[in-house]
Fold these 2 entries.
Entry 1:
Amino acid sequence: MSEFDFIVVGAGSAGCVLANRLTASGRHSVLLLEAGGSDQRFWLKAPIGYGMSFYNPKVNWMYRTEPDPGLGGRQGYWPRGKVLGGSSSINAMVFIRGQQRDFDDWAALGNPGWGWSDVLPYFKKLEDSPHGPSQTRGTGGPLRVSDVSAQVHPLCEAYLRAGEQIGLVRNPDINGASNEGVAINQITTRKGLRASASSAYLRPARRRPNLRVETGALATRLCFDGLRATGVEYLQHGQRHSSRARCEVIVAAGAINTPQLLQLSGVGPAHALAALQLPVVLDSPAVGQHLQDHLCIDYMYRSRVPTLNNELGPWPAKLWAGLKYLATRRGPLALSVNQGGGFCRSREDLAHPDMQLYFSPLSYLRAVPGKRELTAPDAFPGFALSAQPCRPDSRGHLALRSPDPLQPPRIVPNSLATEHDRNAMFAAASLVRRLAATPALQAVIAEELRPGPAVQSHAEVMDDIARRASTVFHPVSTCRMGPDPRQAVVDAQLRVHGLQGLRVIDASVFPTLTSGNTNAPTLMLAEKGADLVLAASRTHAP
Ligand SMILES: Cc1cc2nc3c(=O)[nH]c(=O)nc-3n(C[C@H](O)[C@H](O)[C@H](O)COP(=O)(O)OP(=O)(O)OC[C@H]3O[C@@H](n4cnc5c(N)ncnc54)[C@H](O)[C@@H]3O)c2cc1C
């Protein structure tokens, strides 16, 4: 049996950071297990490839949720990266840290060391931003964050002016001192190529002799000696393997697979494990609970002026965009489709922004897997304007369907289960229509296509939300951090309560969902997590 100091399960956003930082000194050996394969694929490198990986089972777990009563009984589609880089290899590349208050809340929930002033140094450390160096932004870090404001579609200007016309500021850096206002989204690209956790963190570390990366390696069970984690069993090319960890096992398999793996290993709600005849190592009731996610409503418009549909739809235009990309690494193929963004307050009496905005200068009907590719925009000029409440308080959960590690878990999002969340979604829809009604956007809107002008009353808008609202792919908190072992899975050092030699370091440990997109906070969490692991290894007290 092979033996390493650390075994990291999952080479996603967090796992790649850990693999790099834990091997940097050369003093520790690390085994990184990834269920997916290589990320050396053109469509994972070209930013527009987002549309190609969205429904590609070779790089995507392609989860479906249980029928969701709050969404009219629809089954949500939840893509997750299954490839080196994990979800950072297939995401929309929007770089958002969240609001300072998000992290101060983490600390206030009993997690010392996670307040804004504690995490800011890690946000600065991870990035190479053209907005830095400054008190709030960093330069020289592994992850390139690009300011693409000079490259986005000209229609974004109408969106920015619309924001100003409803009283929002135009924010030149929504990751700076304030998040508030309308902005052009910063994206994780370097020289027109996707900057994933794999390209930023794993690639530079791959030649280190103390790092072993196994792809196509599905961790099926964590091994324990009493209450101490000692290693991992995994399945690779149909063969069973096991490896021992001298110091620690670190689970970084993401917000869906991490609680699944813990439960498969006997760490979870005892009654649920017993019902599946799984031996219980530790009754940890919060494993798989407290699931949170962002729900978003898109409004689609037919445009009077050309949009990205004109550049990405017809074959000659597509060919031109492709050639331009290959020659210059610029143009629409080098960008995210979520070009405009920002945060705002839906009511003036609120102390902090409660809505995130998205503006995409292209329109397409999002369809269930196999029905229609994201790569096929509508055949006429169109665009999408969307809003997402920042802090939903509905809680879902996740449970094993069977003891078979190859079976996907049952995902129960429980969307819009609270009045707070239903009101927030109605406010989101109203905000979109306020923006659309401004002179700046009225000048370019030919017609509202979705939901359409017939949808006006509160009941009609809520019915449309139930029929069309969808996740923006930010599940978190299924192994959340907190001081109470009955309510949380890990402590503020990210150690699993009640066990030794085992940490969870990924988006599943967020105490609460941050206000915006979750990749940057996950990378930050892993940077800090790596420091915690290394500090413990120096004192031999994992
Ligand atoms: C379609 C999409 C769009 C998104 N857009 C954005 C965006 O624009 N901006 C943003 O900030 N965030 C975005 N996100 C969210 C963001 O990418 C994630 O929150 C973040 O990547 C989560 O990181 P993680 O390390 O927790 O998990 P992941 O990055 O998902 O990594 C988990 C890794 O573990 C592997 N794994 C799982 N189970 C096992 C196992 N049993 N054995 C071995 N390996 C295993 C997986 O294959 C995966 O590689 C998006 C996500 C998706 C899916």
Entry 2:
Amino acid sequence: MRIHDKIDIYSLLDRKFNCPFCEKEHYIPIKLIFIGKDAISRIPYLISTLVRGKRILILSDEITYRVAGNKCEEVLREDYQVTPLILYPKGTKRVYADEKYLPEILAKAKNKDAILTVGAGTITDLGKYVADSLKIPVICFPTAPSMNAYTSGVAALLMGRLKVTLPVQPTRAVITDITIISQAPLDLIKAGFADSLAKAFANADWRISSLLTGEAFCLLPFKIATEAENKYIDKGDELVQRDERVISSLMEGLNLGGISMIIAGKSSPASGGEHLISHFLDMYAHFKGAEIFAYHGLQVGIGVIISSLIYEKLKVLSSREVRHLLSHRKIDYDKEMKFFGEHVPIVSKEFTKKLPVIKRLPELLPSLWDRIKEEAFSLVYTHQQIVEFLSKAECPLRFDDIGVNEELAYHAITKARYIRGRFTILDIADEMGILDEIVDKLHKGEI
Ligand SMILES: [Zn+2]
Ligand SMILES: [Zn+2]
């Protein structure tokens, strides 16, 4: 494989290969990514090629069981010993990826040869986590093209009062029935679409961070996900009409987004500053004991709008202006973090991780600025493009659209940077005073 070759990532599954971009060896341990019509009836055959043993746990919740779990059970029953486990909400409106569901899943999954998850984010994360702890394979059967965790090597779970992202063994296969995912609730399809838009910005954030800190960077994740993205990004109108070709491309984009994270060995190519805004909103809701504001991807879409505005402001600056802006602003981090109240110690621990690079920005950033412009700013879409893409897919564009009031939106924009140790464009923007301009837009009702 060479840099300009068209990359067929599917031919590289489950084998080691040398990367033309970073020149390191990558390995994607997933064996199969299958998207097709009536894929559900092919499950028994596909599983027979992927799993040794006949004891399968089918994990779903009450909704996804009705959508596809019961049919999966039916088609597998002939050749397999199938145990269905249907999760019901415990104290919330719907089931979340919360550790309180783990004991019953662990109990049922013991002595099984594999777990088949039938669902979207929640069921997938719970199933991946349990399969990983029992060292058995997990196979994902998505019910919605709603996020990129089907193929990723992490599971996001609520542990105690915190959402944590844990490394897990990736799925052995993703088997997608295009007819089923095309009938998913529209909000889940929109959420997947908006989540996938993070890719360009996340990769740009990662490139900047790598230039500043020296952390490893590889362009392969960006390349593979972009090829799929080009097939759906400006077709939001067809997406909401449930066009199966476009939905199939979106699913492909999401799966490649998950694979990107495996290649990178971290979530950086799919999650940058825009994700911190969504995580901030989840954290806030969780601390208040409230339900989340909106699906992950829909919140990320708003984060992407913020990131696109920041990149727009930054790309016109010269290195001299950058130096000037950095020399003027002094932030009292402890005062800012007071917002988090009793959770300050957790937040502060995260923020401290990136403090050394933040402190060195006045020295590092101006001299790297031209390179950052060339290698990172070139990856992102303009603000106008992002608004067009999201509008076409009828996704929320403003905080208000997802029930976040102006005051909380202000905190999301200015405090999201503190909740994770990852260095993102939000850090640069705040250090340069650019976030103040974004907040102005918020107060004018523009975002
Ligand atoms: Zn590479
Ligand atoms: Zn995401």
